[in-house]
Design a protein that fits this description.
The complex is a heterodimer of chains A (163) and B (320).
Chain A: H1 7-18, H2 28-43, H3 45-58, E1 64-68, E2 74-78, E3 82-87, E4 92-96, H4 99-108, E5 112-113, E6 122-126, H5 133-153
Antiparallel strand pairs in A: 1-2, 2-3, 3-4, 4-6, 5-6
Helix pairs in contact in A: 2-3, 3-5
Chain B: H1 11-14, H2 16-44, H3 51-54, H4 61-74, H5 81-102, H6 107-134, H7 143-153, E1 163-171, H8 175-183, H9 195-198, E2 204-209, E3 217-222, E4 227-236, E5 240-247, E6 258-269, E7 275-285, H10 290-319
Antiparallel strand pairs in B: 1-7, 2-3, 3-4, 4-5, 5-6, 6-7
Helix pairs in contact in B: 2-4, 2-5, 4-6, 5-6, 8-10
The chains are: A alpha+beta (163), B alpha+beta (320).
Chain lengths: 163, 320
């Protein structure tokens, strides 16, 4: 991962960390995500192309549909397993795995801890170009399997809050 | 050839561009109708009786709803993200052109407004793209109560409070040299440097006054013949000149959007042969969201102040 973050990523992190109350204002997350997407399409069109390809490939996973994510962005929703992940307007893909799997992937270095909940089962992966999409799809597939195992093994535990 | 057995390409595939255009037009018509309808409501219900509070079109919600409607028209095109961005840009441009032609809105206002309008319309089209993707026949009405609640609730945050923008400039001259230059000044010879002035926003050119006393009339003349009529409210030689703005030009960039109410020049002697010239303008904004338009207003007033104050500095320093 790049050590220095781009302007859009810094703005995004600042807003999600310091302006979390804003997310409670109806429609604000959608406006903010639209702003991010407009900026990304101007400055990094390759990310938008990658997001489009991700969307196309994700819809080929059995049972996956798209939804608007409540904190802005596109949610990849499985018909029985709920949210697998979501991608924000600047191409940041958040995926819900198991804690163990998330830790392993973060150690390998290609993904990082979630931007708001770093020590959770959520991981973040920045899409930059179309070549990143196959890995992103792998992550969503892992999420589908992780949620399935989780449901089977520990369905009595309360669900972790969605990021 | 048996035409009946020949599969014809669906209309929507042949006329994709027509559907894009239809979405842009219908989206804009929706926005225009909602704004117009609200305007009629406000005429029927006097402002003092709470008309403003009952229903004022939310600056965000109406264009967002227009974007949603456009997306509904585009749903069979199954648009990608980039297509939706393009559609939102087209809808915004069409709206801007329509507002300039139909509503005679000022070009500068529309330029200022357009980035915000684009983002809001884009948010609506992006939401609609996902919502109407799954089942194109589904019309999501659940958004309507939410939009209604927000449209009604949004005016509660509205207040027309006067605001002020102030700028300072150090001048290497005594107050005795500076004072005559700020009470009235001839045409500023410098061409405008500020980018909005260059593309047509009126900029200050000269100021006249009928006398140095309270109640005297002043005229601040802007490019394009725009004249602000002013009356001197306070006159303390070498210290303070305050004037009330009693009439603003009938310019589409100003009408209904902004009311400048008062201006002031103050001189502060720094005791080292220099003085600080402090220029202030008081104004009330009538457009929302306040944070967005207030940023633009301060940005523009700052350019107005500095053009005048720099000219005063040049003349005062040349005279000393």
């Amino acid at each position: 991962m790049s050590g220095s973050r781009a302007f859009d990523a810094r703005v995004f992190l600042w807003v999600v960390r310091h302006g979390r109350r804003l997310a409670r204002i109806p429609t604000f997350p959608y406006l903010f995500d639209a702003l991010l997407l407009a900026w990304t399409s101007l400055t990094r069109p390759s990310r938008v192309a990658a997001m489009e390809l991700l969307e196309e490939k994700a819809l080929q996973i059995d049972g996956v549909t798209l939804r608007t994510h409540r904190f802005g962005g596109i949610e990849f929703h499985h018909e029985t397993r709920g949210e697998l992940g979501h991608v924000h307007g600047h191409g940041l893909l958040d995926v819900r795995l198991t804690r163990k799997l998330a830790g392993e992937l973060i150690e390998k270095g290609r993904v990082r801890g979630h931007h708001v909940f770093p020590a959770s089962r959520w991981i973040s992966f920045q899409l930059e170009k179309k070549e990143d999409v196959s890995y992103a799809i792998q992550l969503l597939e892992l999420a589908r399997q992780a949620v399935r195992r989780e449901c089977a093994a520990a369905s009595h535990f309360p669900r972790e809050r969605s990021a | 050839m048996n035409n009946e057995n020949t599969p014809s390409r669906p209309f929507i595939q042949r006329k994709r561009w027509l559907r894009w255009l239809a979405g842009m037009i219908v989206g804009n018509l929706t926005i225009a109708i909602l704004y117009y309808g609200t305007g009629l409501l406000l005429r029927a219900i006097p402002y003092e009786s709470g008309g403003d509070l009952i229903l004022w079109p939310s600056f965000f919600l109406v264009p967002m709803f227009g974007g949603l409607v456009a997306s509904y028209i585009w749903r069979r095109l199954n648009p990608r993200i980039s297509g939706t961005i393009g559609g939102a840009v087209g809808t915004t441009l069409l709206g801007i052109v329509g507002a300039a032609i139909v509503f005679k809105e000022g070009i500068i206002c529309l330029i200022i407004f357009s980035p915000l309008l684009l983002v809001v319309i884009l948010a609506g089209t992006l939401i609609g793209r996902i919502w109407f993707k799954g089942d194109p026949t589904l019309l999501r009405c659940s958004v309507l109560p939410l939009l209604a609640v927000m449209a009604i609730g949004e005016p509660l945050t509205r207040t027309n409070q006067p605001r002020v923008v102030t700028d300072e400039l150090v001048i290497h001259a005594s107050s005795a040299k500076i004072w005559p230059e700020l009470t009235a000044f001839p045409t500023i010879p410098e061409p405008p440097a500020f980018w909005l002035f260059r593309i047509g926003l009126p900029y200050p050119q000269s100021t006249t006054n009928v006398g140095d006393f309270v109640g005297a009339d002043r005229r601040c003349i802007f490019s394009g013949g725009a004249v602000f009529k002013e009356t001197i409210a306070e006159f303390v030689p070498r210290v303070k000149l305050t004037f009330d703005i009693v009439q603003i030009p009938k310019d589409p960039e100003l009408m209904g959007h902004l009311s400048p109410t008062r201006g002031e020049f103050r001189l502060r002697d720094n005791g080292d042969g220099t003085c600080t010239l402090i220029g202030s303008t008081w104004y009330t904004l009538h457009v929302r969201p306040l944070w967005y338009f207030d940023w633009w207003t301060q940005y523009i007033f700052r350019a107005v102040h500095l053009r005048v104050m720099e000219d005063i500095r040049r003349r005062a320093e040349a005279a000393s």
